[in-house]
Design a protein that fits this description.
Layout (H helix, E strand, L loop, with lengths): L3 H23 L1 H6 L7 H16 L19 H4 L3 H11 L4 H27 L2 H12 L2 H8 L3 H6 L2 H14 L4 H12 L3 H18 L5 H17 L1 H9 L8 H4 L9 H6 L7 H19 L3 H21 L4 H4 L3 H4 L8 H19 L4 H26 L16 H9 L27 E3 L2 E2 L2 E2 L2 E3 L15 E5 L2 E8 L3 E8 L3 E8 L4 E5 L2 E3 L2 E2 L4 E6 L2 E9 L3 H25 L1 H11 L1
Antiparallel strand pairs: 1-4, 2-3, 5-8, 6-7, 7-13, 8-12, 9-10, 9-13, 11-12
Helix pairs in contact: 1-6, 1-7, 3-5, 3-23, 5-6, 6-7, 6-10, 7-21, 8-22, 10-11, 10-13, 11-13, 13-24, 14-24, 17-18, 17-21, 17-22, 18-21
Pfam family, one: PTPS_related
Organism: Cyanobacterium stanieri (strain ATCC 29140 / PCC 7202)
InterPro entries: Membrane_prot_PTPS-rel_domain
Length: 591
Amino acid sequence: MIHGKQYALIINLIIVIFFVILTIVINSQMIRFGLNGLGDVRWHIGWVQNFSAQLQEGILYPRWLANTNFGYGSPTFVFYPPLVYYFGSILRIVGFNSQQTMTLLFSLPILLSGISFYVYGQSKWNSISATAGALSYMLCPFIIHSVNFGNLSTLWTIPLLPLGMFFTDKCLENSKWGLLLTVFVSLIALTHTPTLLIYTIAWLLYMIYQTQEKPVIQVIITIIFAFAGLGLASFYLLPAILEQKYVNIDYQSGSMGGFSTLPWKDLFMVDGPYSIGAKNVIATISIAIISIIYTEKRKPYLKHIMGWIIFMVIVLFMVSNLSEIIWYSSHILLKVQRSGRIMGLFYFAQAVLFSWLIKSLLGLKIKQQLIPITILTTILFVNFQYGYNLTRQSPGLNAQTQGVVSSREWMEIALFEPLSEKLLDVPEFRPQIISPYEFNPDVRESTPVIDGIPTPNIIGGNPYFPVPKLNKPKMEVLQGEGDIFIENWSSYVRNFRINVNQQSRIKIRTYYYPAWTLKINDQMHDIDILEDGTIGFSLDQGIYQGTLNYNMTPAFAWGILLSILSIIFLLVLYIIFNNYDSVMFFWKTIF
């Protein structure tokens, strides 16, 4: 005989299997034919490959990718969150090849989005309502666009949103959930920084709303646990913030031609990655109207539904160009780069509406359910059809078709020759070679593939960032005379011997970053930044043994210390708040 818990377990297992099958169907184009090369996928392939290779060298946190930029290197993971690349590296280490790894990295978030929303939904409604919301979330255009256009890190934040709401609601009820909320916040921080900013603002507004329904002390406790998660991720966040002055981080907005918002008319007329399109406008309005009609006699439901409808309208306003005055009011907000990044919040709210509506319909007769269920099913089918058609517009890397895969040669280098020093990295992580005040957003770097290799092509004037050149020697004498013998050249350590006949100036084919330190004959030696952004130094006549090491910067060291202190602080918080009655007594005594 099957008991209640066993029955629930079987139902949950069946639903998860259904989500797995749906994920395979949604992303079948990529699974069958490989990546299409659109968007940023070419960068992510190289990053995963190089990150994995350096982990296998014994570097626990590969912050400097030595083989990118034609071997000049890049401090990519000082500024780009590393979590997805750790996971990709695990897939590589356990035996998946490069193409299988990338396919899994673009497929698993679809599955996890369904599962995480289902977990959140079950805690608020029931299995049927949670499943309906999860289907809406899995099939939303924001996910399919993120998959199709290579927005890997953004894609991985989508399943974290329902999970974060789940932990937040649980922590508001019981402080024992605070540890998991803290871990969640740190996961967001280590996955995608612009999304962290977006979620933090939306989450704080949600917490303000919760003060109307929850004890203020419990809201404060929840906020403390959440912000402890930022402290936990300080080993990444602190250097990513404090060391931006060493690179051309503003190129991110410059390459976009400035901060990007969507004209409000296009928001409704164009089916694009950050618009909702005409079909989705009709779908959203339909869901809202049906929700209001079928919950008008259930005021508690109606209150929640109206709240989510208002939230969706606010999100659309913030995506449109009508909100530009708000975005441009803060330099921090501009770091988001484009307002469309917040569309994930819109589709999460839409999925919540789905769940609330299904919960409302379950108490009605079958005849009353027929019309709204038909409309909701049609919306799900239209979203599925849209995603299905979109992913088939471009051929995959392994497709036997006449179509051309964008950046095929670049992708093949990243997949099969990632350590060959034939790959570029993004310009924003290269060192500054002129004053940051001379930043010109009209100067950009395009990367056509010439003779099978990505080749920098500067558009719009003289570059304010260095441009690497292919097949340059690892070290060379720029002025003077001498012989250089390279003894070891690994990602973080370069050993060499130099015999100079007169005072000489030496160049190392490595972009400058303050983490690099130079020792000559076991003594610290000054480093110069050359005109092309590489490391240079001078020597008098003689024979020298040199070592170039990539070490911790002060910001990284302080970040690690702050992360450790955050762990200790978190444990103390957990012990204190575990005795909730004592905390409430203390709060009431004071206030």
